[in-house]
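[Help] Beginner question about ligand-bound structures

Sorry if this is basic. My supervisor gave me a protein sequence and a SMILES string for flavin mononucleotide and asked me to "get the holo structure". I don't really know what that means in practice or what format the answer should be in. Inputs are pasted below exactly as I got them.
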Amino acid sequence: MIKIASIFDLERAAQARLPEVLFDYVHGGSEQQITLQRNLDDLRALALRQRTLRNVGRRDMSVTMVGEQARIPLAVGPTGLAGMTWPNGEAESARAAASFGVPYCLSTMSICSIEDVAKASEKPFWFQLYLMKERKINESLIDRAQRAGCTALVLTLDLHVQGKRWADEKHGLGVPPEMSVRNVWDMASHPRWLLSMIKSQRHTFGNLQGEVKQAKNVQALTEWVENQFDPSFDADSVRWVRARWKGKLILKGIMHPDDARQAIDLGADAIIVSNHGGRQLDGAPSSISVLPGIAEAVGGQIEVLFDGGIRTGSDIIKALGRGASGCLSGRACLYGLAANGCEGVHTALSLFEQELADCMALTGLSSVHDIAPGVVTAQPSLVMQG
Ligand SMILES: Cc1cc2nc3c(=O)[nH]c(=O)nc-3n(C[C@H](O)[C@H](O)[C@H](O)COP(=O)(O)O)c2cc1C
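Answer (accepted):
No worries, everyone starts somewhere. Holo just means with the ligand present. The predicted complex, written as structure tokens, is below.
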């Protein structure tokens, strides 16, 4: 058993438990994974200003994120197929987020349905929407999220086509994965995962199962989903969603100041600066590199949230120091789920909290609400004069 001291240990534990086809899906990015790596490298390259002569006995880490109380400035972000890594995975993650005290966002492409998660979690959650070509299904998903009491709709903007993830293509990732000799062997050699999955209530896209009448079996549903991402998605699509959804609207996948300004005009309550964790446009800059320009363009008119590469508490400080008011975690919480279900997600959140508290103490911060300019900087140059 791997002893867990950091998110990186949860990553190793997830790798040990999951078949390769699933671990590569969770861990990987699109094409050459340039953007995925940039997200990690650029966060790490930032420097934190160390201050020592300050009383940091009390540190305030709580915030509100789009109207929700959050014990730390971090929400569990939407990740498709989480329920293939742990039985009833999305319901387990939502329970962990609720008991810890941070928002949870359910993906359209989840295994548990909106209703399953509403039943499992004692707190309301956010629902992430991919607009499908079939409008009737979009209407139904929005209405179901509304009926389930979801407090915010997270509309993902960056999936006109799906980024090519080479490992997924080679493995034959699907729901369920292709039954090739390699995958069958891969799954059979991970008995802890395989046996646990018997407890799963569902084995396909829970939100779409009952919606797509023409998909007679699980394979047909997977094929239907692959053809549903809509390249004609534009500002009018957002207007349509804004008119139908009555609650808070968060636009996810903003990487340019002009798109951020347009998001305000379209009636968004918040944006998420995100390149989908390096899983869509490979070659896009890191999300942390574009964050300050976008925060400046928004000028405090709506909330600016951030994701991409968050693996430690200090990464959260770096994002807040560059203009975000809160962060989302994709992979880190998913590693926790894949390693140890509800408890694993709780462990991930607790690690973030402890590391955040430590980082605040060592940078002389008493509150996440006033991270002054200069706390997060570029690493000073080593060039010497003369
Ligand atoms: C396995 C996986 C599945 C994802 N599925 C979705 C999804 O269904 N909808 C969505 O908007 N974003 C999805 N994302 C992107 C995340 O919400 C988030 O933007 C990204 O993971 C942040 O980067 P991080 O993993 O470095 O934290 C997914 C990410 C991963 C790793």
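A couple of things worth pointing out: Residues 30-164+201-377 form a domain with the TIM Barrel fold (CATH 3.20.20.70). DSSP finds 15 helices and twelve strands in the chain. Feel free to follow up in the thread.
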